[in-house]
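My main concern about presentation is that the manuscript never shows what a single data entry looks like. For the editor and my fellow referees, an illustration may be useful. For illustration, here is how one protein appears when written out as sequence plus structure tokens:

***
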Amino acid sequence: MRGLGQDLGVRAMSLYRYVSGREDVLEAVVTMLLNGLPGRLDDRLTMTWQGYLQAMAHTIRGIALQHPRAFPLVATRHPAAPWLRPPLRSLEVVEDFLRTLGRFGFTDDQIVDTYRSFSSFLLGHLLLESAIHGADTSPVEEPLDEGDAQVPNRDGTIDLSSSPEVIRLKDRLSVDRGREEFEAALETLLDRLELQVSQ
């Protein structure tokens, strides 16, 4: 907080009128990066599910490229819901994703599988790309106890009333299927490489 105060040209104590400490600042950065993201997608692309995923991927990549040193917070901060796999900081984005695929006729299993595959690919790729541009991608830290820091899931609970699809699919979203998803993604990559090599 002292360093932030110096960068802003104010005394650190004056910052505490607006935030409770470092955790609040990091939460505010993530909120700024992701707030309203579904509304920023190109409407011309979102008429199909493929276009929706492309628009989502390119919009999030744009954030990563504009803010490479801040982007790792999106993937490494404490997830909006502790059981959400993979962790993604914005319930707004997850809810929009689940609801949109449902509108395109995806079954619940297809919705969850697509969410997990897509977000794993996207976050993994963009974390590497952010690191190339100077981001620190060290492991997530435990929240600092700063008294009144507004860490949404500090007690393992969060109000999900505005995210009905997240609630409805909670059981499916909370299952750890990392090993089989890794194998499926690797197999898909090998198939694509084999196709390229054989041409």
